[in-house]
Design a protein that fits this description.
single chain; alpha/beta; Urease, subunit C, domain 1; TIM Barrel; eight-stranded mixed beta sheet; 15 helices; about 35% helix
């Protein structure tokens, strides 16, 4: 079972953040020498073959160390004497899910352990962290690999680079190529796996970022905005964060539409929805070139848009109980009651974004799941991955497609497809057991009975309690 890390001390003022981060790096690990996970024998559960989109018959799954030792129709002949047997009769074993736009740093709301525990409680075992503070996050990744920190498997992106963003703990301003080279080299030196780029960056600066990242042997993800989605594909970014307009920049679309008398200039959320539902056909028709098919990766972040937040639905979500009070109150305040005046417009905007996602999938892009914890939408770590999958299904993907996006596709994005993303002999023992039929009802993936991370059996209720203790 997982032990409880000591909480880092509360942050009373923003100026104390650097000191708190240093303390957190010591406080979050659970032990300098983590105990070896006991062997597990999971019995009675069928296995979801995510590649084929089908169930395999109930099997006995033997886990030794952090790997799946064997999968057999009956009890394996050679079972370690100290094996822990867990009866999962009637359940389905699913590979661990991924969040490819995750937050996981101590902040004013919570310790990093909050994000880790929330993810694991919802079956999320792969994290690409964006906007992380270096070198702390790189050291945290290395401690996670050795088992000193219980977390999803971590891939790290440092502060986001943006041409016009104000510098902060999460972002760096890069107005020219010289600043790009300096920032990319520094992040690579401090251990970043990814260079992440924000939405106010134009094609010229993007080109410089991609060139510098290639020289530093890091990968690049970029967000459409000042650079259209199709141009990001042409420039050769490794992943696209968030759906955006294909042929024109957001500024160009807004310049055309804001002259209309009904443009809601004073309401940012309504303005975003207005742009989406009035965008031209070419703006909503992403084209993936033949060389990019199967290579370009898209993190749609559909759940990060706030217009479709339903108050009754959000209020009933059990994950809210573990959120920090300010976070929970903010989310509930943004949710809309049934029949609110902007409902039809928000639904039309959501439908437009869904068509872009469907077109990307049909065009050969690799879709993956992600949760933007800083967004105005459903920004709950862990639970947001499930909501994103449900929106993929609403966009026209099958439940099997959505599950692949959250499992094998995430593993491929991080270069781990040979060891993660499937329940197979020899693969890492990252999986979870659910009740129900997720290939028929994607919502059944939330009916989690047990989580296994790196061969360690974890109880979802205990993980949620851990998250609540790590919140401020």
């Amino acid at each position: 079972m997982m032990t409880c890390p000591v909480r880092s001390r509360p942050l009373l003022r923003a100026v104390l953040l650097a000191t708190a981060l240093a303390a957190a790096a010591v406080a979050l690990p659970r032990a300098s020498q983590p105990p070896q996970a006991e062997p597990l024998l999971l019995t009675g559960a069928r296995i979801l073959d995510v590649r084929a989109g089908r169930y395999l018959p109930a099997s006995d799954v033997l886990i030794a160390g952090d790997r799946i030792e064997s999968i057999s129709a009956s009890a394996p002949a050679a079972v370690p004497p100290n094996v822990r047997k867990i009866d999962l009769s009637g359940a389905t074993l699913v590979p661990g899910l991924g969040d490819m736009f995750a937050a996981a740093s101590p902040d004013l709301a919570a310790d990093a352990d909050f994000y880790y525990a929330m993810a694991l409680a919802h079956g999320v075992t792969q994290y690409r962290v964006v906007g992380a503070r270096l070198p702390w996050a790189a050291a945290e990744r290395d401690r996670s690999r050795t088992g000193q920190v219980l977390s999803p498997r971590l891939s790290i992106g440092g502060p986001r680079l943006d041409q016009r963003a104000l510098p902060s703990f999460h972002a760096r301003t890069v107005p020219d190529a010289q600043a790009v080279r300096r920032e990319v080299a520094e992040q690579a030196t401090l251990g970043a796996d990814w260079i992440t780029v924000g939405p106010t960056t134009n094609p010229e600066i993007y080109r410089a970022i991609v060139r510098a990242a290639r020289a530093a042997r890091t990968r690049v993800s970029g967000q459409p905005g000042s650079t259209p989605l199709s141009e990001l594909v042409r420039l050769g970014v490794d992943a696209i964060d968030r759906v955006g307009f294909s042929s024109r920049s957001t500024e160009e679309c807004e310049k055309e539409l804001k002259t209309r008398p009904d443009f809601p200039a004073q309401d940012h959320e309504a303005a975003v929805d207005y742009l989406w539902r009035n965008a031209s056909a070419s703006d909503l028709r992403p084209v993936v070139s033949k060389p990019a098919k199967g290579r370009i990766i898209v993190v749609p972040l559909l759940a990060s848009f706030g217009g479709v937040l339903d108050a009754a639905d959000v209020g009933a979500d059990p994950s809210l109980a573990a959120l920090p009070t300010r976070w929970r109150d903010g989310l509930l305040s943004r949710a809309h009651p049934a029949g609110w005046p902007g409902a039809a417009g928000a639904a039309a905007a959501a439908a437009a974004r869904a068509r872009v996602v469907a077109a990307l999938a049909a065009g050969g892009a690799l879709l993956v799941t992600g949760v933007d914890a800083e967004s105005a939408g459903f920004n709950v770590p862990g639970a947001g991955v499930h909501r994103e999958m449900a929106l993929f299904v609403r966009a026209g993907l099958t439940p099997a497609d959505a599950i692949r996006a959250a499992t094998v596709n995430c593993a491929e994005m991080l270069g781990n497809a040979a060891t993660l993303g499937q329940v197979r002999t020899g693969f890492k023992a990252d999986l979870f057991a659910v009740d129900g039929d997720p290939l028929a009802n994607i919502g059944d993936l939330r009916r989690i009975r047990l989580v296994v991370r790196g061969g360690e059996a974890l109880e979802p209720a205990a993980l949620l309690a851990q998250a609540k203790r790590a919140a401020r």
